[in-house]
Amino acid sequence: MTIAMHAYLREPEAIYARSFALIEAEAGAALAALPAELRPVARRLIHSCGMTDIPADLAWSGPIAGAARQALAAGATLFCDVEMVKAGIIDRRLPAGTTACCTLTDPQVPDLAAELGTTRSAAAVELWRERLDGAVVVIGNAPTALFHLLDRLTSWYERPAAILAFPVGFVGAAESKEALIAAPFDVPYVTLRGRRGGSAMAAAAVNALWDAER
């Protein structure tokens, strides 16, 4: 029996090259308008979701890519709001000795959430403080985690080196990102305005930090 075969690219390197060629063809002008250090991040974000209009909604402050790279190269902790963000980060792209940490499953978190009257994702941020100074924060799911971090930064003296914020959803996602943009803290960040975001995008932003400029 003959089985009809679909015609499609099968070689991983060819698929990868074709994907980024199409991204450049469709979003090249928008990418060129971004600072050079953000272009690899924007490309990876587009690649993670298939949406070429991503550059128009990016917001950032300070030398975000450079600040995150420098912190991680120095051994800073990489805090993730959920395990899916951590799972999406390509370990071999990180400097040797870099630790990716997600405190959401820590046994202290349920009681902390009940005590604080908030979500577990927000309560998990409480456990970041000891290593937050100079760390890199990556949020790809929970708006409450970003809100809680911003609230704590008003009283904690510790400051992360960089924040990559891509919380997703219909409740609080857009608002939490606008709160980050409006925050008075001198912390480099990159975020995506609106409801869009997610773990894949957050991990893609981290994975892009060591991409060579195309």
Helix content: 40-55%
Which class do the helix and strand fractions yield?
alpha/beta
Order of strands across the biggest sheet? 1-6-5-4-2-3
* CATH C-level name: Alpha Beta
**How many domains is the backbone divided into?**
1
Overall pLDDT score: 94
Q: Would you tell me which CATH topology applies?
A: Rossmann fold
Morphology: globular
Note the total helix count: 11
**Biggest pleated sheet:** 6 strands, mixed
What is the C-alpha radius of gyration, as a whole number of Å?
A: 18 Å
Specify the CATH homologous superfamily.
Cobalamin biosynthesis CobH/CbiC, precorrin-8X methylmutase
Assembly context of the chains: single chain
Question: Mind telling me which CATH architecture this is?
Answer: 3-Layer(aba) Sandwich
The unreliable regions are: none
Distance between the amino and carboxyl termini: 46 Å
Q: Secondary-structure element sequence?
A: HHHEHEHEHHHEHEHEH
Number of strands: 6
